[in-house]
Design brief:
Elements lengths: L1 H31 L1 H21 L1 H16 L2 H27 L1 H7 L4 H14 L3 H16 L3 H24 L9 H26 L14 H35 L1 H38 L2 H28 L1 H6 L9 H17 L1 H16 L4 H25 L3 H35 L11
Helix pairs in contact: 1-2, 1-8, 1-9, 1-11, 1-12, 2-4, 2-6, 2-10, 2-11, 3-4, 3-7, 3-10, 3-11, 4-7, 4-10, 5-6, 6-9, 7-9, 8-9, 10-11, 10-16, 10-17, 11-12, 11-14, 11-15, 12-14, 12-15, 14-17, 15-17, 16-17
Length: 453
Amino acid sequence: MRAVAILGLPLVGGHLAQFAIGLTDTIMVGWYGVEELAALTLAHTVFIVFFLLGAGFAFAVMPMVASYAAQGDETRIRRVTRMGLWLSILFFALSMPVFWFSGPLLLGLGQAAALAEMAQDYLRIAGLGLLPALGVMVLKSYLAALEETRAVFLITAVAAVLNVVFNYALIFGRLGLPELGIRGAALASVLTHCVALAGAMIYSDRKLPDHDLFGRFWVPDWESFRAVFRLGWPIGVTNLSEVGLFAASAVLMGWLGTVPLAAHGVAIQLATAAFMFHLGLSNAATVRAGNAFGAGDADRLAKGAWAALILSVAASLLAIVVFLTLPELMIGIFLDPADPDRAAIIAAGTGLLAMAALFQLVDGAQVIALGLLRGVQDARVPMVMAAIAYWALGLPAAWIAGFVLPWGAVGIWAGLVIGLGAASVMLLYRFWARALPTFAATGRSLAPEAAPH
């Protein structure tokens, strides 16, 4: 428990600081205008879909570096990290056209023309930040796997503070800069990601000079490239399955109108903040599991799994209490007190936070299970399980509850609860009933492509 907490809490802080970048955008744009907040909700949904899909390669680096670190193989550590950066650059190049032409895409999904145009304005600028954002994720995975977690936290915390300054200056036209509104929020995010990337690169180079990550960066290692790709793409698709469910819920919410969509945007930010605790613990579980996998230690793997799950349950209980007792206070932070829609947004958001309280335990359980499975480099079957849970169960349930019954916005979020609950059951079964017994008996992963320890 102590080892997982020491490793995981700085990662939680790092994720919260990274999340604060988007949160700052939401709060300040919400103060700027409700229509802009609704457009930002759509734009951020599109951006996060691509970010988490591309982050699959960064998440793949983490268990591989942890496993090689247990074996003392510094050459492979350098190679898989470098190829993770290569894959991130390639993914960025493929993603930019979608950001540039996102307006017609959003119109085709039934969004209002004015919101689609503003969202496209945001994405054409913010999309440039995908490259440094993915680079930061790879380097954070590399550092976390080597248990340099305090550096991960400090780098992202400094960047998040700077993002507040950038937003204040660029959204509202302060400090002698022009008032750019939603475009200013996009530019602030790009600058923030660049600062974080610079900090991660400088720290990695100075703290771990023997790895020489950026020396002869252009030289390929195709074996490591293929290994990171094989593990990374199913992780990215798994990320996409979950975030795609939430993205689809934003589209469904947009059909209900601007106020429900704005309430959804605020509630999803608060639910995501709680999720960052589970994600940080999941990363710690991945590192501990990857290290145990590399060392061939099944007992350590099992103990680390229990520790991560218990800490996740504790975080869930705290979030449940907060969501059920302080909804109006938390939602009000995001809104201008003089906004005429403030009361309606708070009323809608309160119901959504009650649903968010329902899925805290299962949301934490599914991401911890994913982290453990990634630690033993088992990603393809979990990818299928996630797709079934989120898209075959969660999304149809959201549509039925929201529009057929109809329960409106709360019904859409009830579908999220069903999808996350199904995922947690399937993924926990995969780890405890299949992956752990297989590793204990044979010393190998269920995944045939996993690197031998």
